Amino acid sequence: MKVWQPGSHLSEERGGEVRDWSWQRTRRRIGLLARLTLPYRGRTALAVSTLLAYTLVALAPPYLAKLAIDQGIAEADLGRLTTIVIVFLVAAVAALALSSANTYLTGWVGERMLADLRNRLFRHLEGLSMGFYERNRAGVIISRITNDVEALDQLVTDGVTSLVQNTLLLLGSAVVLFFLDWRLALATLTVLPLMAATTAWFRRRSNRAYRDVRERLGLVTATLAEDIAGMRVVQSFTREPVQERAFRGVNDRYRAANQETVVLNAIYFPTVDLLSSAAIAIVFGYGGWLVYHGDVSAGTLFAFALYVSNFFDPIQQLSQLYNTFLSAIAALDKIVGVLDEEPQVRDAPDAHELPRIEGHVRFHAVRFGYGPGLPEVLHGLELDVRAGTTVALVGHTGAGKSTIAKLLARFYDPLQGRITIDGHELTAVSQHSLRRQLGIVPQEGFLFGGTVAENVAFGRPDATRDEIESATRAVGAHSFVVELEDGYDTQLGERGTRLSLGQRQLVAFARALLADPRILILDEATSSVDIGTERQIERALRQLLSGRTAFVIAHRLSTIRDADLIVVLEHGRVVEQGTHEELIAARGYYTRLYGDWATDVA
């Protein structure tokens, strides 16, 4: 049996299955919003109470107007008229107070709900595995936590209140209309079938249109984030016109989606106004005829006209709210979609803390691929690395070098086989306790928009200034840091743009070394620095790697030659391993790679 997936056509599914899925989705939406209100249940209850009280008070003025006309003006009873006017004013003041209190309470709860939702989304994103970020564009993810949460703002701070209030006013006005005169009420409500049909059409078309708007807004954000992050590449290759055309295309599709909602609104809301006017015309036409024949009083007709307005105004308000509701529901579906994402790598229920390790790493017949339908990257990898060994992983692009580093950091789990550190299988220990003892320096060190000291101490926030400076001295970064205008307190800007590429990498080295890792992973970590800087790093690493296990992915000969063990990979398998001298003497695959590198250097 075919299972419905988001984006498929409902017409392809059985009606019962679609309704069941729709109900489950609605229940999940309501459940998420309800859980967000739980910490503020007291103020939420108070907001609901003031809303109900306000609705009751708001139904009183038209009936008071009827009494004023029929019992005060028509009978020339000044005392009764004065009493009714006073009650009218009291009701107005009460409505003002209740409305103000409800607006404040609803906004107070709503803003805190949204802040909690952002925090929850961010916390959830932190727990997702690397595979999620490799499958999804950063801009789309950012859009979920910014644009989509913002789309809920009007709903939770005003929309829910408006929905309940106008629904109660609509039902209350309908009851009072029949109480005043059932004949006139039936005549007035003859326009409802046409309004119901129009609303059903609008709901069906708008639902799809607003989902398209949310989807395309996410693409606009993703494209914009990507182009801004890669602006240097865009300008270097003079691709501005091409990227501008690409962005214009994405933006035009977003505009077209919004335009569809504009057209729908332009059709629907004037139709609601027309039907409301038709209802008022029926009231004064048929109601005037009843007054003329003495079947109803003038005060009743006046009150009836006010209640008809009270009946159709909520319909129009609810119709306008429907736009907000659709936009918010579409955004909520996107948010729920992110919250439904499960980490690919999870701690076992009985996972234990990894004790302080020596660093003996073993890969036991490890097989791994990045996803269903994608080729296998590692094919039964066997590797035994003794504690304190510096291992250089070499091979052509795609041989599996970086994959080994990712598996060791447990960003992914093997499909088959197992990885152990000091005999502890990685899937049996907590990720936190494992990564606390790892230091990872990627090809381009990522720095955050704080100070130099904050970036160096990122892995050890409690580090003293002396410890921070000691780490930067060890990698040769101290000399340029102290020359910055504020030294270690210099703000680096987004991604550390105040520093050169080589300087950023040196700070990343200092950050990893300050964390005192038992296992250090250097993934092409020296490829972004010049020869002089690389030699400076290598001098520091010889001392700092003592007693630690290090996995070094590199192409530079100096880094490879100094390794205790060189592991040569080809198509996800170990084809050779040994020291530089042993592998050169064997005149095998490594010798050919070495010859290629030597030619490149020459």
How would you explain this protein's 3D organization?
The structure is a single chain. With 602 residues, the chain is of the alpha/beta class. Among the domains are: 10-339, Up-down Bundle (ABC transporter transmembrane region fold), CATH 1.20.1560.10; 445-516, Rossmann fold (3-Layer(aba) Sandwich). The chain has helices spanning 15-37, 41-58, 60-73, 78-127, 130-135, 138-151, 153-180, 182-188, 192-229, 231-236, 240-292, 298-339, 401-408, 431-435, 452-456, 465-474, 478-481, 501-514, 531-544, 557-561, 580-586, 589-601, and strands at 361-369, 376-385, 390-394, 416-421, 424-425, 438-441, 519-523, 549-553, 565-570, 573-578. The strands form 2 sheets. It has a 6-stranded mixed sheet, sandwiched between helices. The longest helix has 53 residues, at 240-292. It is elongated. The protein starts with 14 loop residues before the first helix and ends with a helix.
Topology record:
Blueprint (H helix, E strand, L loop, with lengths): L14 H23 L3 H18 L1 H14 L4 H50 L2 H6 L2 H14 L1 H28 L1 H7 L3 H38 L1 H6 L3 H53 L5 H42 L21 E9 L6 E10 L4 E5 L6 H8 L7 E6 L2 E2 L5 H5 L2 E4 L10 H5 L8 H10 L3 H4 L19 H14 L4 E5 L7 H14 L4 E5 L3 H5 L3 E6 L2 E6 L1 H7 L2 H13 L1
Return residue spans where pLDDT drops below 50 for at least 5 consecutive residues: 1-19
Q: What is the structural class?
A: alpha/beta
Tell me the span between the first and last alpha carbons.
63 Å
What spatial order of strands do you see in the largest sheet? Answer: 6-7-8-3-9-10
Q: What helical percentage do the residues reach?
A: 55-70%
- What is the averaged pLDDT score? 80
Helix run count: 22
Shape: elongated
State the CATH architecture of the domain at 10-339: Up-down Bundle
Strand content is 5-15%
How would a crystallographer describe the biggest sheet?
A: 6 strands, mixed
CATH fold assignment of the domain at 10-339? ABC transporter transmembrane region fold
The CATH homologous superfamily of the domain at 10-339 is named ABC transporter type 1, transmembrane domain
